[in-house]
TrEMBL record:
Official protein name in the record: Triosephosphate isomerase
Organism this protein belongs to: Desulfurivibrio alkaliphilus (strain DSM 19089 / UNIQEM U267 / AHT2)
Gene encoding the protein: tpiA
Cellular component, GO annotation: cytosol
Protein task: Involved in the gluconeogenesis. Catalyzes stereospecifically the conversion of dihydroxyacetone phosphate (DHAP) to D-glyceraldehyde-3-phosphate (G3P).
UniProt-annotated catalytic positions: H94 (electrophile), E166 (proton acceptor)
Pathway where this protein functions: Carbohydrate degradation; glycolysis; D-glyceraldehyde 3-phosphate from glycerone phosphate: step 1/1; Carbohydrate biosynthesis; gluconeogenesis
GO biological process, one term: glycolytic process
């Protein structure tokens, strides 16, 4: 059985006091829901403050991570730095990193391997644009992003991976993939992981859905066989809304 993971990506929002207040509320919900895992990725500037109120059950993550442990990489954050701040996970390949900041699959792979080398669980984000979906390229895009993103990741390392399918056209737009669309993509990724690794490994890798997940649609999305959690953006900034998502039925 795959333990559900509900992850909140706070992006570039919240000051220190707001982040600590929200984290404390989310930590309380996480403590009350032992059958699922809860993760938050605050801005880097808030991680130290959030750690003070996070408790044991709430997982902290970096919104990105460099592949090097130190050096002349202005604006980056190293895996040991995230570990020192209490992080256990790191998001890599988010669509905003790919499409706003120009990160390609090779860079995403370097970040992923850098995270894993220092004991961070990477959340590998994949997903197609609206143009790619309308051109019938969805599965080809997902296959490329998975295969290239997992280059040089050995089978012995793969069990700890998390993958997040986030159709770019559904992020922050209010549009959500239908449950059938989400399941179709997740099932395809699961089959692909069987080819890249093996069936037993693929069966254990969690695949999250992201893209305008909210309190109204989370139950239906989470009911799909290959959806193992959610990567939540804007809806994770409200304690009330995020609690409802964490407590999905």
């Amino acid at each position: 059985m795959r333990t559900p993971l509900i992850a909140g990506n706070w992006k570039m929002h919240l000051n220190l006091d707001q982040a600590a207040e929200l984290a404390a509320a989310v930590a309380g919900v996480a403590e009350a829901c032992p059958d699922r895992e809860v993760m938050i990725a605050p801005p880097f500037t808030a991680l130290a403050r959030v750690r003070e109120v996070a408790g044991e059950r709430l997982i902290l993550a970096g919104q990105n991570v460099c592949w090097e442990e130190k050096g002349a990489f202005t604006g980056e954050i190293a895996p040991p730095m995230l570990r020192e701040l209490g992080c256990r996970m790191a998001i890599v390949g988010h669509s905003e990193r790919r499409h706003v900041f120009g990160e390609d699959d090779a860079m995403v792979n370097r970040r992923l391997r850098g995270a894993m080398a220092h004991g961070l669980v990477p959340i590998l984000c994949i997903g197609e644009t609206l143009d790619e979906r309308e051109a019938g390229q969805t599965m080809a895009v997902l296959e490329r992003q998975v295969r290239d993103g997992l280059q040089q990741v050995e089978i012995s390392e793969a069990a700890g991976l998390v993958i997040a399918y986030e159709p770019v056209w559904a992020i922050g737009t209010g549009k959500t993939a239908s449950p059938d669309q989400a399941q179709e993509a997740h099932e395809f990724v699961r089959r692909l992981l069987c080819e890249v690794y093996e069936k037993n490994i693929a069966a254990g890798i969690r695949i999250l859905y992201g893209g305008s997940v909210n309190a109204a649609n989370v139950d239906e999305i989470m009911a799909q066989a290959d959806v193992d959690g959610a990567l939540v953006g804007g809806a994770s900034l409200s304690a009330e809304t995020f609690e409802r998502i964490i407590r999905f039925a």
